[in-house]
Amino acid sequence: MTYYIADSAVFIMGNCDLDSSLIITVPSVAEELKSGDASLRFDLAKEGGLRVEWPDPEMVKEVRKMAELTRDSEELSKTDLEILAKALEYRDKGLLLTDDYAVQNVAVQLGIQVKPIAQKKIKDIIIWQKQCIGCKKTFDKGDVCPICGSPLKKKRKKSRKEKSYF
Ligand SMILES: [Zn+2]
Q1: What sequence ranges are listed for the domain Ribonuclease PIN (predicted)?
Q2: What is the distance in A from the centroid of ligand 1 to the CA of 139?
Q3: Strand residues in 7-124 grouped as ranges (E)
């Protein structure tokens, strides 16, 4: 049996083909759904058996660690971390449904199966870098260039899919 770990987009986009009793999500996703339609879909799914589970703090820790390595941590909200933690817990029997690029990126590195809702699945792993707008040097982090003092801008650095961080 495959469970669907659903982030907010599932309810916002209204993906209704799923068996509600196989959907699992986290409390922060429920909190995020402010729009009438999305929260209505959420309530309907809940009536159909959707489970709202708290993430395991140990799993959240592991997700955070990976997000640091892939430099996606700045992009991830609390909800993103929690949904990733839940997907990690169900790694062997779950499918993470998300359209969020940073979430997908971290999920792939954690060995989580990802299914996009509307967008195409990413093929390459994205590594974030900061690039100086003045001298164009790239850095791992920071806001100001240590060489020329110009602001640093976020930049995507692609790497091969096989690249491992371990
Ligand atoms: Zn510079």
Answers
A1: 5-89
A2: 10
A3: 23-25, 51-52, 94-97, 114-115
The CA 113 to ligand 1 mean position distance, Å, reads: 39
pTM of the model: 0.71
> Does an H or E element contain 123, and which?
none
**Average pLDDT for residues 159-165, to the nearest whole number?**
45
Amino acid at 152: L
Centre of ligand 1 to C-alpha 152, Å, is 8
Q: How many CB atoms lie within 10 A of CB 51?
A: 15
Ligand 1 center from residue 121 Cα (angstroms): 34
Q: 158 C-alpha to center of ligand 1: Å?
A: 21
The residues, ordered by sequence, that sit 6+ positions from 77 with a Cβ below 8 Å of its Cβ are none
Report the candidate in 83, 74, 66 with the shortest Cα–Cα distance to residue 117.
83
CA distance 38 to 28: 14
Q: How far is CA 107 from CA 122, 134, 139, in A?
A: 11, 34, 24
9, 117 in Cβ contact below 8 A? Answer: yes
